[in-house]
Design goal:
2 domains, globular, seven-stranded mixed sheet, Nucleoside Triphosphate Pyrophosphohydrolase, 19% helix, 35% strand, 468 residues, 11 helices
Length: 468
């Protein structure tokens, strides 16, 4: 198998990860038995989520002075107001403020010479289907320091103390910039060689098994997708009988085949986008947010667009705390997240958007070509660029089309349609200045660093890997 061209500092690890990718099944948990295992774990978990009035949200309340929605401990997160002034216009909105840095971590271990990932069947109050496949550890700082006085988080010490564990990935990455203010999590992968117990809600899967699961609606959660996107691995050439798109995608992984723009030019384009961005963000009291109102059960807009804030009561027997209340952000509709792709000299490139977002720590991150809630943009004059092209594209040009859930711990039934579509020959090669054609190997290289690719782009990169 080929050595890694993407990660020359870790060729052996990259090849071992690639071997796991090319292992589509495992005796640890055969793929044919996985649905039954997941259903068994769901049935074994007492789980219920019920909308409640804000006044019944135990431990939560509105600040008498600002109207901000906070937990009595002062920890976890808060819902505050935000005023935004940008070149695209001015607006105000509620936003989730969670300054803590949590851990999203996957443990890997070799079985019969193949690396496996320790994944968790985890319930989250906002999941559209209850149980989804999550990383080994998925915890906020408040949770893993046990502010809730609940049970300890399994396997946490492998990431906090890294006892008997070797770090493969450790990078800070952002989360949704339209709903979170400066939210970041530590994305980690650690390898163990010693035996560790496999608890009831956990299972060992190869990367090949996980990639097949990425083609199933709402199965692999957002936190798992972002961690998986940061993994380095080598990949050999496509089989001789591979689909032409897969061949072009494989070529896109090889830096030796070149790209439309040099790596230095991609970074310079991104720096220029950050330099010219015009954005002013001010936190303000939630009670004073223009265009939004609060009743006993929700905070929302009169037109119902964008999202609303609700409260829920949760029972989850498998969690560190078995019952709690919390607010959730509920999007108004299903979103669309898409890369448009085009071949240049046989190498597949993706149209990346330098997206200005009020919640990003550095104002701009690389985003998919299209990322929006379509119904929140009814005016044709201000529709997101390329949205109508995507919605009208020939279905035969769509290479990936799967519903994926966003963070179920903070968002209620937040589901996006994740799409990769190859444009036709008439699509322009020259694009607006805040867009750029970028090869897959360049995106993967940027994932070694913080604050380049946003969480939606990272999810799509992970989904791209599933096309093999």
């Amino acid at each position: 198998m080929a050595r890694s061209l993407l990660y020359p500092d870790s060729p052996a690890t990259a090849v071992r990860l690639a071997e796991s990718v090319w292992t589509p099944d495992s005796p640890r948990l055969p793929s044919a038995q996985f649905p039954a295992w997941l259903a068994e774990r769901a049935a074994a978990t007492e789980f219920a989520v019920a909308p409640i009035p804000f006044e019944r949200a135990r431990g939560w309340g509105f600040d008498e002075r600002t109207g901000d929605l906070r937990h009595a401990s002062g920890r976890f997160f808060a819902v505050e107001g935000l005023a935004v002034a940008s070149a695209q216009g001015d607006w105000e909105q509620p936003i989730i403020v969670q300054p803590e840095i949590g851990i999203l971590g996957i443990v890997v271990k070799e079985f019969d010479g193949v690396l496996h990932c320790l994944m968790q069947a985890k319930v989250e109050p906002g999941n559209v289907n209850g149980v989804q496949l999550s990383p080994t550890v998925q915890a906020t700082h408040s949770n893993y320091t046990r502010v809730h006085q609940g049970r300890e988080i399994p396997y946490l010490e492998l990431f906090t103390r890294r006892a008997n564990a070797r770090v493969l990935v450790d990078v800070l990455q952002s989360e949704q910039g339209s709903w979170f203010l400066h939210k970041r999590n530590r994305n980690m992968v650690v390898e163990v060689t010693e035996d560790i117990p496999t608890l009831d809600d956990f299972c060992w899967l190869t990367l090949g098994q996980l990639q097949a699961m990425l083609r199933v609606d709402n199965l692999v959660n957002m936190d798992a997708r972002t961690v998986l996107s940061c993994l380095p691995f080598a990949r050999p050439g496509a089989p001789a009988d591979a689909d032409p798109f897969v061949t072009a995608l494989t070529r896109s992984l090889d830096p030796a085949l070149g790209a439309r723009h040099r790596d230095a030019d991609v970074r310079s384009w991104f720096t220029e986008a950050k330099t010219r961005s015009e954005l002013t963000v001010r936190r303000r009291p939630l009670d004073g947010v223009a265009g939004w109102s609060r009743d006993g059960e929700r905070i929302g807009r009169a037109d119902g667009r964008h999202f609303q804030i609700i409260a829920v009561d949760v029972t989850a027997g498998s969690r560190e705390v078995s019952r709690w209340s919390q607010p959730l952000l509920a999007p108004a509709e299903r979103g669309v997240v898409a890369f448009l792709a085009r071949r240049f000299d046989g190498v597949l490139h993706f149209l990346v958007h330098a997206r200005v977002q009020h919640g990003y720590l550095d104002r701009v991150e690389m985003a998919p070509t299209v990322q929006c809630l379509p119904g929140s943009h009814p005016d044709p004059a201000v529709r997101p660029r390329f949205l109508d092209y995507l919605l009208g594209i020939d279905p035969a040009r769509i290479r990936y089309d799967v519903l994926q859930s966003e963070e179920g711990g903070r968002f209620h039934h937040a589901v996006n349609r994740y799409v990769v579509a190859e444009v036709d020959a008439d699509f322009p090669t020259e694009v607006p200045p805040d867009y750029l054609w970028v090869a897959l190997h360049q995106l993967i290289e940027l994932l070694r660093h913080s604050h380049y690719l946003n969480v939606e782009a990272r999810s799509l990169v992970t989904c791209l890997h599933s096309l093999w």
